[in-house]
Amino acid sequence: MLRRRPARPAVSGRSSRGRSLRKLAPLAAALAVGTVAADTASAQLFRRLRPQRPAARVSEAPAPAQDGQGAAPAGDAVARAEQKYQAGDYDGVVQETDAAVRENARNHQALYFRGSAKVELGLKRGDTEMIRDGIADAREAISLGGRTNSKYYLPYLYGMTNLGMIEGREEHAQVAVDTANTVLGRENLDADTEGNLLYQRALAKRYLQQYDAAVADFSAALETLPNHLASAAERANTLQIGGTPEQAREAFDQMVAAFPENPLVYNNRGMYLLSQDDREGAVADFTRALELNPNYHYALTNRGKAALDAGDTTAAIADFNRSLELNPNQPGVYGFRGNARLFAGDLSGAAADQQTAVQQAPTNPTAHSDLGFVLFFSGDYAGALEQFDAALRLNPGYRHLHPWRLESLIALGRDGSEDPGVTLALDNGGNGVDWVVRLLQFQLDRLTAEELLSKITSENERAAAAQQCEAHYFIGRDRLRAGDEEGAEAAFRVAVETEQKQLSAYRGAKIALGE
């Protein structure tokens, strides 16, 4: 039996329909959001680039400049700041170094650690100004003591590369490459500094899509520092992006062989295997990571995601529960668990999880869109519309939401043809007609169901399957509102038979069929 939705008045002589597209798949919208969870330790600054070494001692702080510029020696505040940096307490670092800089504005060690912490905090919080402040501190540290402390360039390079990624400005990363080139040309660099400079240059080159050059730098960093886990991890990640599957697999295997007791390597190889549809191998790696560290929440999250992808919502929810017990500040995991609960038919639980995700990440458009989908499937079209609008305000590029947004308007009995957002989406920035526009045209009665189906691509099998799923789902909704339950059920069945489980339209069809 179909799950009957409340009848709504037709807008233009007959009722309409909506659909779902998602940001990472230009043709269709996936319901589950986010990605599997990498242990970001491998992508952080030099704080964690020496994973096989004990926590840094005060004596490992960069030596004070001997340039006669009045730089203060490292005091207790700087020593505490370094210890807090090694522990990942970036707010504590800023607090300690603020006091040190107030006492002596030329304390380049304090500026170095404060800049490093601010870059980290800015990345963690998505705060571009905080990253810029960190870069400014690093510049000042360089000007005061950079001639004898080449490590001072590290937060500057890291900040510039990440600022480039956030703002989409390649010139920032190019500055990082050029600066690293200059510093690496210095004589008498110690191995630790040289290895970390190579690592930072590699990150910048990767952003610039210079994959071979980035791999070469990661490899050089490993030659200089054989225990440099971050370079091993990012080398493998870079080959996954810019190399062949065989090269990437070899690099991940080499990483595991080099660091067999570190759960990160199994977690990250598991992520790669999951991307290659080797779910069994991925789960084995996630499980091995948990054997090494039962509290390793990244692996719990990823194993839960693998179970979710396989349709085992019970196992997925169990792993997500444990991951959230260990680290409750994970909006993405609340999103994953919300989707698992949705798949299990627990709409109220799904909505609660997605609400928490939004509360924890209020500026994340994906969190808002996922909450919108859950509310949509719960029949709360006003709430869904509010969340879709919030997501589009945060990221106007989320075109996949426009058909869902229009479907919410139609379900509320509103004339979507007069809506400015619909008009804007139909215009598509002057970029012509795409699948989103086709769906909107169908919803506005400018295309028949047959005409919509005839527009499905024949050039890409994967895209065609996704479009089939979406088209038939919204055709089903239209037929259901028109009172044609038999025709609606047939359309929903076709949507489900496409097996496009990553799509919201697939889940919507399952819900409509009472499955």
Which terms would index this structure?
515 residues, 0% strand, Serine Threonine Protein Phosphatase 5, Tetratricopeptide repeat, 65% helix, 25 helices, mainly alpha, elongated
Q: What do these coordinates show?
A:
The chain has 3 domains: 1-23 and 397-515, no CATH class; 33-39 and 260-366, Tetratricopeptide repeat domain (Serine Threonine Protein Phosphatase 5, Tetratricopeptide repeat, Alpha Horseshoe); 40-259, Alpha Horseshoe (Serine Threonine Protein Phosphatase 5, Tetratricopeptide repeat), CATH 1.25.40. Helix 12 runs antiparallel to helix 13, helix 15 packs parallel to helix 17 (365-377) and helix 24 packs across helix 25 (504-512). With 515 residues, the chain is mainly α. It has helices at residues 76-86, 90-103, 108-125, 128-145, 153-167, 170-184, 191-207, 211-224, 229-242, 245-258, 263-275, 279-292, 297-309, 313-326, 331-343, 347-360, 365-377, 381-394, 402-411, 420-427, 435-443, 449-454, 461-481, 485-497, 504-512. It is 65% helix and 0% strand. It is elongated.
